[in-house]
Model the fold of this input.
Amino acid sequence: MGSSRASPLAAESACNARRTAYDTRVVQQYKSLVWLVWALLGLLPGCVTGGLDLEVRAISARAPANVAVYLDVSEAGEPVEPEAGQLVLYEDGHRLDPSMTRQVLLDKELVVYHHTVLLVDNSGATDELVRAELGNAIALFAEEVTPVQPVSVFAYDGSEQLTLVAEFPRIKQARRKKLTPPKRLVPKDLSRNLNGAVLLGVKELERRLSGSGKPLGVGTLVIFAAGADLAGRTDSQAVMDWLYETRHRVLAIGYGEQSHEVEAFGKDGYFDAVSQDTISLAFEEAGHHVQNHFARGHLLAYCSPARSGERSLRIELQLPGQEGDRTGAATTQFSAEGFRAGCDPNALPRFNDSSRPSATGP
Done:
C-alpha cells in the first residue's frame, strides 16, 4: 500500500498545531507547579497550612457591623465540623474577645446555593453499549451529588452547541435514576469540541447560579473527555486562562489512551477512567468528591469592633489531636466604613459579586 507525503503547507500547519498544544501543556504544567509550591509553603490565597486547611470562599461586610465569612474547613481532604467558639478571630493583628464578637455559625443554605454542571464527551458513543455505560455512570454521579445540590448534565461532541441530557434536582435521599431517552447521548458530530464545551458549560453553570435567588452561588464544573479538543472551534489558551482565574471548582475525568490530555482541565481534582469498565467508578468518585467539598463549607458570622477603614481578618482554628494540636488559619480583608453599634450576628449576610476575598499574607 503506497504512502502519501503531506504538502509543505500542511506539514507546517500540523507543526504549528503541535507547538500550540505543547505550549499550552507547558503553561498549564507550570501553573500547576506554582500552585503546588504555594500549597507546600502555605501561601495559597486565603489559607495557611498546619494540619487543618481553611479557605475563605467569600466575605460580606455591612453596617451596622456585620461580618460574615463563607469558609471551607478540611483535614487531609475530609470535611471538619468546627464549633463557633473554636474559631479565633484577629482584626489587624488584635485577638477579638468572643463576648464582643458574639460569633455564630449560621445555616449556610439560607444564603448559599450550590450547583454542579457535568459535561459528558459522547463523541465516541456510537455503540449502544457505550451509551448504556455512560448513562449508568451519569446516574451514579447524580446519586452521589444530588443529596447536597442539583446537577445539570450536558453532552458534547464536535458540534457547536451542548445537548441537555438531564436535570437532576436536589433530593433528600439518594436514588438512582435511569436516563431516558438514551438517544440524547447519540453523537451528531464525531469530532470533539472540548474547549468550546467548557466555556459553554460555564455559561450554563453561571446562569443557574444567578437564577437561584440566593446571595452567594458556589459552582462546580465536571468535565468528562476521552482526549484533547479535536474540533478547534475555540482557542485552547483562552480556556486555560479561564481555568487559572475562575472561582468555580473544576474537576476532570479522563478516559482512554489520550486521557492524559484531559488532566490539565482538573485544577481541583482529576479522576482517570482507565477503561470502559471503570468509567462508572470514576464518575462515582468524582461525585463523592463534590459531595465531600460541599460538607466543608461553613458560614461564620460575627460583630466587628471596627468602626472605619480597611481591616485584615485572620481566622484560626485549633483542635486537639492524638499527636498534638491540629491547627489551621485563613486570612482576608474587608472594609469597615460606616460601621457602628447595633449589630446582630444572626442577621443574614448579603453577598454579591465583590464578596470574593482578597487574600493577605499569613
About this structure: Residues 42-362 form a domain with the Rossmann fold fold (CATH 3.40.50.410).
